[in-house]
Structure formats: structure tokens, C-alpha cells
Write a structure and sequence with these properties.
This protein has 487 residues and is α/β, with parallel strands linked by helices. The protein contains 18 helices and 17 strands. A hairpin with a 2-residue loop joins strand 6 and strand 7. The radius of gyration is 30 Å and the shape is elongated.
């Protein structure tokens, strides 16, 4: 009883579904197809590929090879209009009719016999629908739009097909065989998951090479025979915010994690990639605001890993760029916890791509430097080399600059940086609400202070921004001319 109470207190864990996706085993099962048209031929081929005994009832002659040849005995052709007798013993019923009255009659006849029915292009007469399929059998992906946008579903299928190598068919087929191995069947749930997580990593690493017996023994030795229950920590870069910029390895680790410790800058769209059972804990750090202390995060990571958990420390951007990864790596190593680092796209790269610039340029910048806008004290770091910031051949990226940009500007100008150097502030880079301000380094701090914009901001300084600045000036001039004309 307490288990159901706990579930009820957690609230709904699955959003509403327009339909429930199911995969039917149809080997040898009789399935009725009735009506006319090309759709009937395609459905006959599809069902025959799924192993069904396909009964095609039609009063129109067909010349399609799949029907003429009978698909090696799987297809039975009945050359007459359908009748109630044709429903006898069938598992599913599919119809293709031009007239609504014919479609309704067929659907009513099937439903009266409690037979699931589908009528092509007539969703009101359907109990189930056919999705757009990605076939890497026994790996099969089906996509449904609830009949609303079949062309969109086909476009999604094409995108997914590009992400699923054909070699995955061998990996899934082998997994089906290996699941019955006694060493796996008798192992604990945790050790089985360790084995299959390692199996998935190997599949992604070399999808076109089928797993071998040597692979099986190595994986068994690693995950089962060793019997190690030691946890581990993965420091994973979530990128600047756009979920499409996640690396495949980051997605894989999110789907294998037991616990995810994530920052404020990690969006919900990125967390949606995590496996549903993973525990998610916000350990966010906000600039100049309430934050979870770093020592507490370190202790939490180590404690969870010591319990045998796979902990993913999910950070905005790249873990190694002002993400305090060094302190977390040191804490794990001091505790004897295995730790790995998965790089992500740092915000500077996302912002540069959004502005359409290159951070390096043969004519403008031969060096890129990343600078933090505040030290532990909240002020500018005392270790900044201002002559480097003033170097006209460098692109300077300032992270967390909101409170200290004015002081940074003043010190850089005193060190020799030209006040006309182009500069940009990019808010929420790569996200839907992203926006930016283009100015010179002399004027940008005051423009930034005048804005009430929320969200993470990054500042970019250097001549690589010259073209973007020129375009911004052209737009401003045009706006002024329009305002003068309106007056």
C-alpha cells in the first residue's frame, strides 16, 4: 500500500499520450486486408515482412508482384468483396476504401467482433495506426503523430535513420541471444545493468562491427565476474543550452545514470534525455546569488558513488571551462572514485556560431583567451594579465562578466586596448530566448547595465567582431532614418 502512496505523492511521471505504442507479434497470425488501391499492396508487404498470414479480400484484380507471388505462401488472395465471414479468426483488420460508407461498414463489422481495425486515411474508423518505421530489425523504431502529420513523421524517420547505423541490427540480435546466458540471468539487477551499459558503450563505439565471443567474455569479466559494486562519477558538459548541441556520449551517459547532479543553467529539454528512473538533484550555482557550496557538492558526489551509484555531474557548457571540474576531479581521486570527463560545447563556441563569426581569423585573431569575470571574492581576479587583454591580435571571452565588466574595460583600456575594439554581449546563447548587444568595449558596460535582461551572459571582445559590428551599425543607421522620416 505504501508503494502506491509513494507513487501518488510523486505526481504524474508520464505526460498524457494520444495513443499507446505497442509492438505486435504476428508470426503466423491471420490478418485481414480488404478494399482497393496501392495502400492495400503496401500494407500487405508490411504485414508479410512482420510474419503475418495476410488474407487479402478484394474484388479488383492486382498485378503487384507481392500479391501475385503470394510472398512465399504468406499471402492468401480472396477475389471477392469482403463479407462478415472473412473476419473469422483474424487478429487484426485493415481496410482501404474511397467511400466513407464503405469504410464505416468495414470498421463497424470489425469492432462488433472485438477485432482491432485500421482504415487507411480514415482515423475516425481506426482503433490503431501505423507509424513511420525505422527498420533495424530486431531494433524497430515507430513514429506516430496521431494521424495529424504523416509527412512530418516521415521527415522524423529520415532524421532518426541517420542516427541509427545499420549495424545496430546485429547488436540487438546478439543481445537477444545473450540475455539467456546463465551468468546474466542469475546476476543481480545492478550487475545486469552494468553489463548492458558496457554493451551499449561498445555498440556505439563500433556499430558496424558485430559483437564477438571475445567481447562477451570481456564484458562478463568486467561487469559480472569482477563483481565490483564501486560507483563512478562522470563530469558531463551539457553545452550552452540547446539540446541539439549535446554530444552523443553525453546522451548515452544521461541514459545510464543513477543520479544526476545538475546546475541551474541546464535546461529541462536536456534533462529529458535522462532515463526516467534516474534521481535528479539540483545543485545549482548562480552568480552573486544563493548557491550550493562546492564542498557540499563534492561530498555528495563521493557519497553517492561510494553507494555504488553512477553519478553524472551535469554542467552547463564544458566542464573544464570555468566549471570547477578541477575541484570535483580532485575530490573524486582523493576518495578513490573513478571519474571521467565528457567535454561539451562551451558557451563561447555557441555564442560565436550564433553571431556567425569565427573566434580565430588569419587577419584578425591568432589567439583566443578565456577569462573569468570574478574571483572567489566576486571581484575581478588579480591574476589577469591586462597586456594580454589589450592585445589586438587576440579574441577575449569573458565569462560571468555582469558585475565587473566596467572595471575590466577600464583596466584593459589603461593597458592599451583601443576603445573602438568591437565587443558583444550574448544572453542565453543558442537558446530560443537568446539575444545580443553589439557595441564597442568603451560603451558596452553601460549598455549592459541599462538592460534588465535575465539569463546567463557572455562577453566577446576583439576584431573578429568587426563585420558583425558593421552590420549592427547599418541597422542602427537605417532605424534612425526611418524614425526621422516618420517624424
Amino acid at each position: 500500500m505504501s508503494q502506491w502512496t509513494d507513487i501518488a505523492e510523486q505526481g504524474r511521471r508520464i505526460d498524457a499520450l494520444s495513443s499507446l505504442p505497442l509492438f505486435h507479434k504476428l508470426h503466423g497470425a491471420p490478418v485481414l486486408l480488404a478494399g482497393r488501391g496501392e495502400a492495400l499492396i503496401w500494407k500487405a508487404e508490411l504485414l508479410a515482412a512482420a510474419g503475418a498470414h495476410v488474407i487479402v479480400v478484394t474484388d479488383r484484380p492486382f498485378t503487384a508482384p507481392v500479391l501475385a507471388e503470394g510472398a512465399d505462401g504468406q499471402i492468401e488472395l480472396r477475389p471477392h468483396a469482403w463479407s462478415p465471414a472473412d473476419f473469422s479468426g483474424v487478429r487484426l483488420a485493415i481496410g482501404a476504401f474511397e467511400a466513407i460508407a464503405d469504410a464505416k461498414a468495414f470498421s463497424d463489422a470489425a469492432r462488433a467482433r472485438n477485432i482491432p481495425v485500421n482504415v487507411v486515411d480514415r482515423p475516425e474508423f481506426c482503433d490503431f495506426q501505423f507509424g513511420a518505421l525505422v527498420n533495424r530489425s530486431p531494433l524497430v523504431v515507430a513514429i506516430s503523430t496521431d494521424g495529424a502529420a504523416p509527412v512530418f513523421a516521415q521527415a522524423l524517420r529520415s532524421r532518426i535513420e541517420g542516427l541509427l547505423p545499420k549495424g545496430f541490427a546485429d547488436w540487438v540480435g546478439t543481445a537477444k541471444t545473450w540475455r539467456t546466458l546463465p551468468a546474466l540471468r542469475d546476476a543481480s539487477a545492478t550487475l545486469r545493468r552494468n553489463f548492458w551499459s558496457a554493451y551499449a558503450r561498445l555498440a556505439f563505439a563500433r556499430p558496424q562491427v558485430a559483437p564477438s565471443e571475445e567481447d562477451r567474455e570481456a564484458l562478463l569479466s568486467q561487469a559480472l565476474i569482477g563483481g565490483s559494486k564501486a560507483g563512478k562519477v562522470s563530469l558531463v558538459g551539457a553545452g550552452p543550452g540547446n539540446p541539439e548541441l549535446l554530444t552523443l556520449k553525453a546522451v548515452r551517459l544521461l541514459q545510464a545514470a543513477d543520479v544526476i547532479l545538475y546546475d541551474h543553467l541546464v535546461s529541462q529539454e536536456i534533462l529529458d534525455f535522462a532515463r526516467r528512473e534516474a534521481k535528479r538533484m539540483l545543485v545549482g550555482k548562480t552568480g552573486y546569488g544563493p548557491s550550493c557550496k562546492q564542498d557540499d557538492i563534492n561530498r555528495m558526489m563521493v557519497a553517492l558513488a561510494r553507494e555504488g551509484r553512477h553519478v553524472v555531474r551535469l554542467k552547463g557548457g564544458d566542464p573544464g571551462i570555468f566549471g570547477r571540474a578541477g575541484e570535483e576531479i580532485a575530490a573524486c581521486r582523493a576518495a578513490g572514485i573513478a571519474v571521467e570527463i565528457v567535454p561539451g560545447i562551451t558557451t563561447a563556441q555557441g555564442a560565436a556560431a550564433e553571431l556567425g563569426i569565427s573566434l580565430t581569423h588569419r587577419d584578425h585573431a591568432q589567439r583566443v583567451q578565456f577569462v573569468t569575470g570574478h574571483a572567489r571574492s566576486g571581484a575581478l581576479p588579480e591574476s589577469i594579465r591586462w597586456e594580454a587583454i589589450a592585445d589586438g591580435a587576440a579574441t577575449t571571452i569573458v565569462y560571468m562578466p555582469r558585475k565587473t565588466l566596467g572595471g575590466l574595460r577600464d583596466a584593459a583600456l589603461q593597458a592599451g586596448l583601443s576603445p573602438d575594439t568591437p565587443a558583444a554581449a550574448v544572453f542565453s546563447a543558442t537558446r530560443e530566448n537568446s539575444h545580443h548587444v553589439i557595441a564597442t568595449i568603451a560603451t558596452l558596460p553601460e549598455q549592459l547595465e541599462a538592460l534588465e535582461a535575465d539569463g546567463p551572459v557572455i562577453v566577446m571582445i576583439g576584431s573578429v567582431l568587426s563585420e558583425v559590428a558593421a552590420l549592427a551599425d547599418d541597422v542602427s543607421d537605417e532605424e534612425r532614418r526611418r524614425a526621422a522620416g516618420a517624424a
